[in-house]
Specification:
single chain, alpha/beta, five-stranded parallel sheet, three-stranded antiparallel sheet, 19% helix
């Protein structure tokens, strides 16, 4: 991070080029008396207790530096420092044990703004009251959002392709040019019914002819023909009418087989109760702004301010309210590290949600016909979970001068999923499955939050089998010579996983050593030798294929099992309906690449199975801060033939030790804070507590958000580059010995 050593920032620039966090792939609510107290779990909100500082700021100068220096650190047999049941690497474990919990809140001056925007954004956007700039809805632009854009669904017509070359937005019906989405349109019985992709074109068997519209069929009123735009759902239910099966409800905000049921849309933090979700974009009520309507302006009632601004002492200019002031100052007690979250121009985040063509893209949750939450299986949902948690976190600040970190929430997971899906989205950003390999050299000094920690120490090339993700051909002058992941500055965070409430209730993760009868378990794609598996030789870097050749417990296409197949080693390619039970019945579980990354580490830890990691030079979640030897086994790719021999050589004492640590770490791989934010929203809006909310509410301990905050706090006072910054002195709420970087500054 050498280029940040002399960093001088202008924190008010929202179009900043340096990025704090690029995730290569975040309200105190009233509860009815029947809600269990545990439902109020909020990740770092619960575990980072401020009980000793509720009435006054702690006098940290009274804490003896000598006592800190002589603290006895709880240490495990393998040298890890234990802090909050997690085995940390030595330096970070010692600092957290000595300093993190004694940090006192400090007074931070937050500015509550009230600048106006041109024409009130013309009803087509939200006014950022801090900057006096509009954030326009999808399809609108200009200083006052008065310019209506024309975003076509189709690429330019070609002689053999009258609707242009194929892309996700291709449309033979009515194109909503504010979002490049395709609908039945006026003149049909159901004008708001989507006509997505193959729905609007002629289909012969499994082949779609993208050059010939199927208008006659989808608009037919003849119930004996498979139509769509005029089909009555009740008549289909009664068996009186046919419908075109290629047509389906792909867009957000609609439910039912024929998109006939309006549902809640997915927005960031569901607009915090201060606005309406406008297809992914929050339309805030007067007095509120921000991507999730969580920032109050000067016209919002003080009693409605969010918890991260509560207990504020408010200072009004000249001691009175008037018509000529644009801001007020509120002094709020907060603990560091403090994070400033940029309110970016919406084309970098919210437009990607508002205009998405497949509702599952970019989000970790959707809503059914009863507006109940259902969680997606999108591994990239972790980006949304972290973003929502940070927006609602007590570590958030509006004061850039006091910020320790700057979070720049480009929804690159959404950019990846939506690249080239409409004519106005012809772009390539970060690699889908390979972390920050694509990152332009101009932003590489930033801290990257990634899902794939390829240090390039062995695999100094693209590790995916999918051509669209390959980065090898990007010119050096564009991306530089940096690795995909730098363990000195970056952090791998867990993938998004939301287990079925039944699985959570079964507590497979808590099973003892004697209940785990399978020595080693892996259930997943094993490559071309097996039926319906991936054909590419470079899939999984060839690791799964080598594993199967030795230990496969099912026959391949040639009817052969693995050369060393044995009863207590399960390596199969066909997904088991009892997958989580089988993980919970196993002692060791395989963690290997898929097409790039996979979620197998999370699967293993969440079911209490000791991870066996085979991917040389590629780090997993928290691997550069936690002591992985305490709860996992790493085996070199060249040692795959010796896998079982290595595992059987581990003695019972070490097995019990690793198993216990996996079970203690489980919570750190769950985005509990995000889950509980949604649980409280559902309870407040609909008075319900769904089974998933109840089951997760019983979980305790530090989750992903808590772990992330702990790492940031350590880095704030220990990253060596910060000591060279020349910045105004700040109050950190820590004794001198904990402040190793005396000139600690802010980081992107």
């Amino acid at each position: 991070m050498s280029s940040l050593q002399n960093f001088k920032y202008s924190w008010q620039l929202t179009a900043v080029i340096l990025i704090l966090v690029a995730f290569i792939s975040i309200v105190h609510i009233f509860f009815v008396p029947l809600i269990p107290a545990s439902l109020d779990f909020t990740g770092s909100r619960q575990t980072e207790s401020w009980a000793n500082a509720s009435s006054s700021i702690k006098n940290v100068s009274s804490i003896d530096d000598k006592n800190i220096e002589q603290d006895q650190y709880p240490q495990s047999s393998d040298g890890a420092i234990l802090y909050r049941d997690a085995p940390w690497k030595t330096d970070i474990g010692k600092w957290l044990s000595s300093c993190h919990d004694i940090a006192a809140p400090v007074y931070i001056n937050e500015t509550i703004s009230g600048k106006n925007c041109k024409d009130g954004c013309s009803g087509h956007g939200i006014c950022n009251s801090e900057l006096g700039e509009c954030r326009c809805f999808h399809g609108y632009a200009g200083e006052g959002c008065s310019e209506r854009l024309n975003l076509e669904c189709n690429a330019p017509a070609l002689p053999m392709a009258p609707f242009g070359y194929w892309m996700v937005s291709i449309c033979s019906a009515y194109c909503d040019t504010t979002r490049a989405l395709c609908f039945c349109g006026e003149g049909s019985k159901y004008p708001d019914r989507p006509v997505a992709e193959s729905c609007g074109f002629q289909v012969n068997g499994q082949v779609v002819n993208w050059s010939i519209a199927d208008s006659e069929m989808i608009y037919t009123n003849d119930i004996s023909k498979p139509g769509w735009c005029n089909v009555n759902p009740q008549e289909v239910k009664e068996g009186k009418a046919l419908y075109k099966h290629e047509c389906e409800c792909k867009y957000d905000c609609q439910g039912g087989q024929f998109c006939e049921i309006p549902t809640e849309c997915s927005c960031i933090n569901q607009c915090s109760g201060n606005g309406c979700c406008h297809g992914g974009f929050c339309q805030c009520k007067d007095g509120w702004y921000g991507v999730d309507c969580s920032i109050p302006s000067i016209s919002s009632p003080l009693k409605e301010w969010p918890p991260w601004l509560r207990s504020a002492t408010v200072h009004v200019p000249d001691g009175r309210f008037g018509d000529d002031y644009h801001s007020i100052r509120a002094a709020v007690k907060k603990k560091r590290p403090l994070i400033y979250i940029y309110d970016l121009p919406p084309e970098f985040n919210i437009h990607l949600l508002e205009g998405r063509h497949f509702r599952f893209h970019c989000v970790n949750r959707l809503y059914d016909e009863e507006n109940k939450t259902f969680w997606t299986n999108q591994l990239y949902g972790s980006q949304m979970a972290l973003y929502e948690s940070l927006l609602a976190s007590p570590y958030r600040t509006l004061n850039g001068d006091e910020a320790d970190y700057f979070y720049v929430p480009v929804l690159d997971a959404c950019l990846i999923a939506r690249a080239d899906d409409a004519p106005h989205l012809s772009m390539r950003f970060f690699s889908w499955d390979e972390g920050a390999c694509y990152a332009p050299k101009e932003i590489w000094n930033s801290m990257m939050l990634v899902h794939w920690g390829n240090t390039n120490s062995k695999h100094n090339h693209s590790t995916t089998a999918y051509w669209g993700d390959e980065w090898d051909t990007i010119p050096i002058e564009r991306r530089g010579t940096h690795p995909c992941f730098d363990p000195e500055k970056d952090l791998v965070l867990p993938a998004w996983k939301s287990e079925d409430p039944y699985i959570v209730k079964q507590k497979f993760w808590a099973r003892s050593r004697r209940e785990r009868l399978t020595l080693f378990y892996f259930n997943g794609n094993l490559g071309a030798a097996f039926k319906d598996n991936r054909p590419e030789p470079n899939y999984s870097l060839g690791i799964r294929q080598k594993l199967a050749a030795e230990f496969a417990s099912e026959p391949n296409k040639e009817g052969k099992f693995g050369r060393q197949s044995t009863k207590d080693v399960i390596v199969v390619s066909q997904r088991s309906p009892n997958y989580y039970f089988e993980l919970g019945s196993s002692l060791f579980c395989g963690v290997f690449p898929g097409d790039g990354w996979s979620g197998r580490m999370e699967d293993s830890v969440l079911q209490g199975c000791i991870p066996v990691i085979i991917q040389d030079g590629i780090q997993l979640a928290y691997e550069n801060v936690l002591n992985y030897y305490s709860f996992s086994v790493r085996i070199a790719e060249d040692d795959i033939p010796h896998l079982v021999q290595i595992l059987r050589a581990i003695n019972e004492t070490e097995l019990e030790f690793k198993l216990a640590n996996v079970q203690k770490l489980r919570q750190r791989f769950i985005y509990q804070d995000s889950l509980m934010l949604e649980a409280r929203r559902q309870n407040k809006s609909h008075g319900r507590v769904d089974d998933w909310a109840l089951q997760y509410s019983f979980s305790t301990g530090d989750d992903v958000l808590s772990t992330f905050i702990q790492v940031l706090h350590y880095k704030l006072h220990n990253d060596p580059w910060r000591s060279k910054l020349s910045v105004p002195k700040k109050e950190f709420g820590l004794p001198t010995l904990c402040q190793k970087n005396k000139n600690t500054g802010s980081s992107k």
